[in-house]
Design brief:
single chain, alpha+beta, Threonyl-tRNA Synthetase, Chain A, domain 2, BirA Bifunctional Protein, domain 2, 4 domains, five-stranded mixed beta sheet, 23% strand, disordered N terminus, disordered C terminus, cytoplasm
Length: 772
């Protein structure tokens, strides 16, 4: 996460030192948790005028102006050192070579030539498009001189690192506008997955409201029009302390760094900030901007510390992109699972139990269908389900190591003078069960699944619908296996993930996170484990990426990110190797001889938390659930009162076939009943009258008002069974079997209609190594 948060510096050459990277990452994570509204759909402060305070915004701007002026003078002083170095380099004229991705070479002068100058040598149109360089794999300012022979890429806004730089620079522009408009003290301002924010402190209990939005956007427009250059300098720790003497937050950050640290500063206009960079050449690269919502946060995620205000923004290199973004945000608002959940009567929250969801009958149907899907897949993939306690003595968490690192996120209870905790995860309990008796190598792999209820004491301000809760269930599983079984077991986990996500219609990407600094264990063990994960990833036939050094200290992992209908990313599934818990719990199995060995433990989740996947799917489908997952599958509507009896008979037969069916006998026009059923997202509306009764048929139409005419009732039930049990995303009416197979894909077989999914179990588990 280095380089994406204004609030720390970096050494002059190379990546941030460990102290900088750690401080940057921890601070940004803390601030994100502390924010009380973190999504684009969050609630902004109201537009009412702020209450009377001791001093106005203008008073504070005037009060801080001498500090801003001193900051600029010091920056210019330090910038002169860099200018002198460049002049010396110009005189020395040391030639270096720059290798481009196409294999061509460009000549340059060490300490003088910048990536932008190289871009101009290649093409003027390229120079206009690029926003940042990547030099030997490290993000690099276009205006920063190259320092040695190197490989270089030039990235535009369409590249993810280009977007990051664009929005990181935009956060500085927002910070400048906040200082000039409101006299704030800036804390941190990182780029996000989409957009950016800046956290700031306002003295005298002032606040920024929606009424201030127009003025803030006007100031940003002025800064953009001025095309202010971004400048970079390197200073010592003491020089940084002198520069930010009026900002207690920056002083606290700097004070936490080593005495010998070198720190990078960036300036645009009068705004100077601690930052690892890189940044755009100037503010004029922004062609469209919008101030989004505002929210509250606490400094360092500590409710006892200073109250901050967070301002979100979004920018683009063209106006069309901003309009498209606004359209997507409107669509995201329409799909927001909190709104859809309320409209469809799926779930509710109550202040009597914050962060714990009440699932109404319709919501419980979806929730249980998700769990039932996983149970069916567990049968196919050879898992056994277990049930473990919800509360454990704290000694268990001391053994596992969670008490040391996770205690603040646990709900603790004193029982008979002993400290207990509600479990925030299942793995320690599974270790206890494994250790109940001697295990043989012949038993391995053991695959245990657990839908146990988990509790995590999330900060109240971070709670957000179903995506951030305190009480939840995971489709959690742990595999205990021999080292030689790791590759096959992980490959089967990824095969399971692929099958489930294909059922949902979710695209996904996979990333391998490798050995981090401070890892535990032997290098050889890690190398073999990472090779096993690479082999498993290759077996999927899908592309994947590597996050070097991003693994956990106890083992490498694979993270799977899904994309919803709006192409938003959500990290859900994970496959994590763990070498340490088996050691902590002294787990072992007997080999072919008399020796014993430690098993490898694989942590695995597909849905992640059921609650979070519920939210993702609600927004992905926008409430238009596929038939197998729908809480409102069929509505029966009689043409007249004379048909009420047959309508109820149809309902009874569908209910017996285990479909969610309702019958509308209200005294309303048939057309209105049909429209209401469509708006309530019933997948099928069955209209019945005297003719249908005589022929034992029903007249079928869908929620999208596609009419399929009269069908025999038994044929209808058979087709609905097939649609449900095949987990089809589409209606099967009017489609041939070949079309259905093409829609569903080879990985989702269509079982026979008379076999419901709950009983559709093979004689033996179908594992990846058994199908080759």
């Amino acid at each position: 996460m280095g380089g994406d948060c204004c609030g720390n510096g970096a050494p002059q050459n190379g990546p941030p030192q460990p102290a900088f990277a750690a401080a940057l990452s921890n601070l940004e994570d803390q601030q994100n948790v502390a924010a009380q509204a973190v999504s684009a759909n969050g609630t902004a402060t109201n537009g009412k005028a702020a209450p009377q305070t001791k001093a106005s915004h203008k008073d504070w701007v005037d009060k801080l102006k001498p500090y801003f002026d001193t900051r600029i003078q010091l920056f210019d002083k330090y910038a002169q050192r860099g200018a002198d170095e460049r002049e010396r380099a110009r005189g020395e004229n040391v030639q270096i070579s720059v290798k481009l991705p196409n294999g061509s070479q460009q000549s340059a002068v060490k300490g003088v030539t910048t990536p932008m100058e190289v871009a101009k040598q290649i093409s003027s149109s390229l120079a206009k498009r690029v926003v940042v360089a990547k030099v030997d794999g490290k993000d690099w300012d276009l205006f920063r001189p190259l320092e040695s022979d190197c490989q270089m890429e030039l990235l535009d806004f369409d590249h993810k690192d280009g977007k990051h730089t664009f929005w990181h620079s935009s956060s500085h522009i927002l910070g400048e506008a906040l200082e000039l408009c409101f006299g704030v003290k800036l804390t941190i301002g990182p780029a996000l997955e989409e957009g950016f924010y800046y956290d700031c402190f306002l003295d005298d209990d002032r606040r920024i409201t929606d009424a201030d939005r127009a003025g803030l956007e006007k100031k940003i427009a002025e800064i953009i029009k001025e095309k202010q250059s971004f400048q970079r300098v390197v200073v010592t720790r003491n020089e940084a302390l002198e520069m930010f003497q009026e900002n207690q937050f920056k002083l606290e950050i700097i004070g936490g760094l080593p005495e010998s640290a070198t720190i990078t500063l960036y300036r645009c206009g009068p705004m100077v900030d601690l930052c690892t960079g890189p940044h755009l050449p100037n503010t004029g690269y922004l062609k469209a901007h919008s101030v989004q919502n505002m929210s509250a946060a606490f400094w360092r995620a500590d409710a006892k510390r200073e109250h901050l205000q967070r301002v979100y923004g979004i920018t683009f290199p063209d106006k069309k992109s901003l309009e498209e973004y606004k359209h997507r945000m409107e669509e995201a608002k329409r799909r927001d699972h909190r709104n859809v959940g309320k409209q469809m009567e799926l779930f509710y929250f109550n202040e009597m139990s914050p962060g714990s969801c009440f699932f109404a009958p319709n919501g419980a149907r979806i929730y249980n269908s998700l769990i039932e899907l996983m149970r069916n897949k567990y049968w196919d993939f050879g898992y056994e389900e277990i049930v473990t306690p919800n509360i454990y003595n704290l000694d268990l968490w001391k053994t596992s190591g969670h008490a040391e690192h996770y205690k603040q996120n646990m709900f603790l209870i004193d029982i008979e003078k002993a400290e207990f905790g509600l479990k925030p995860m299942n793995c320690p309990g599974h270790c206890l069960l494994f250790a109940t008796r001697t295990r043989s190598y012949r038993e391995l792999p053991i695959r245990w699944a657990d839908f146990g209820v988990l509790h995590r004491n999330e900060y109240s301000g971070a709670l957000h619908g179903l995506t951030r809760v305190r009480r939840f269930q995971q489709d959690d599983a742990h595999i205990f296996c021999r080292p030689d079984q790791v590759a096959t077991e992980v490959a089967n986990c990824l095969k399971l993930v692929g099958e489930v996500y294909d059922i949902f219609g979710l695209d996904f990407e996979m990333r391998l996170s490798t050995r981090p600094e401070g890892f535990l264990g032997e290098v050889d063990v890690w190398d073999k484990a990472e090779d096993a994960l690479r082999s498993a990833l290759d077996s999927t036939g899908r592309g994947w990426e590597v996050n070097e050094g991003d693994g956990a200290f106890y083992g490498p992992k694979i993270d799977i990110t899904v994309f919803d209908a709006l192409r938003r990313k959500f990290q859900c599934a994970t496959v994590q190797l763990d070498f340490q818990l088996p050691i902590r719990f002294k787990l072992q199995y007997q080999t072919e001889g008399t020796a014993t060995e430690r098993p490898v433990m694989v942590h695995r989740a597909v849905l992640g938390s059921v609650e979070r996947m519920f939210a993702i799917l609600t927004e992905h489908y926008a409430g238009k659930w596929p038939f197998w997952l729908s809480p409102r599958q069929v509505m029966v509507i009689p043409i007249s009162e004379a048909s009420h009896g047959y309508a109820m008979e149809v309902k009874a037969r569908l209910h017996k076939a285990r479909f969610f069916v309702e019958c509308d006998l209200a005294d309303k026009k048939m057309e209105k009943k049909i429209r209401e059923a469509q708006l309530e997202q019933f997948n099928y509306i069955l209209v019945v009258g005297e003719q249908e009764k005589q022929e034992n048929k029903v007249n079928i139409r869908t929620r999208d008002n596609k009419r399929h005419g009269a069908h025999d009732l038994e044929d209808l039930i058979a087709t609905l069974r097939q649609e449900r049990d095949s987990y089809s995303l589409h209606s099967l009416f009017g489609q041939s079997s070949d079309t259905v197979a093409a829609v569903q894909g080879d990985s989702v077989p269509v079982p026979q209609a008379q076999k419901p999914a709950v009983n559709n179990q093979p004689d033996a588990p179908m594992l990846l190594n058994e199908t080759k």
